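Supplementary notes for students who missed Thursday's class. We covered one full example, reproduced here. Read the sequence, then the structure, then the short commentary at the end.
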Amino acid sequence: MNESSAKVSIIIVNYNTPDLVRALIDSIKEFTRQIDYEVIVFNNGCLPTGKFGAAKTFVRVIDSEVNLGFAKATNAAVAASENPFLLFANSDCRIDSNVIPRLVKFLTDNPEAAACSARTISPDGQTHSPIRKFPTHENIGSSRGAFFQRGEGYTLPADDSRKSVEAMAATFMMVRSDVFRQVGGFDERFFMFVEDTDLCRKFHEIGKTVWYLGDISVYHVWGASTRQHRLKMKYHHHLSIWKYFRKYYPQATMANLWLALQLSGNFLLVAVSLPFGKGDRR
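Structure (token representation):
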């Protein structure tokens, strides 16, 4: 398969950010060439004023009256796709070059790769690293979500290189549709957060690789959807971490008990600090 014959379904889950969705789609239309694509927007329990309405022929819209969470909403959108490649794109992303065919080309040229992701850059030029190691009891304390960060080894530095990684965020992630379906898609036990790390782990378990392509970049406005309900999102972030450890380390009883205490304490600290503008790292 070459670039010109590849077909991509671009999946955007919208939660009350219709203007951002429109801006992302406009940037896709402006800069994407040499590839066939469609956009599927999933309105995920939006307010009437927060829904995105399709005004373009290449955009399909799916409405849900309730917020299903990111994993379940994305799986529902994928079920409506018949294309061989899927691009998961946060509504607060933008592109300013023809990046999508480059992601497809990488997967086409590297059949062992299940997914690849671009480098994400904030409007002020800072890189938000989308790559990480799998969470362990030893490294989780160094995550961006830890109020008192200690140690290192979870979030990895993002540069302009290309490298195989353990896990990465689904902020702007291209995956093979057949492999995504083979592993069962996103685990819907995760309402928000960690579902992308879990997906990457499932890719590795079937012998596939996951790649960070640092020489390809997109713009990302951090947390445009999640800041609408900051405390609720912090709760789901902590809960998803707990679910991940229960899923992959079920026999580590004492370590999980200690983790539960740490997560509870960290959530309380984050909750108290949010009104003062702190605790917003993830």
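Commentary. The mean pLDDT is 92. Residues 3 and 35 are 6 Å apart (CA to CA). If anything here is unclear, bring it to office hours.
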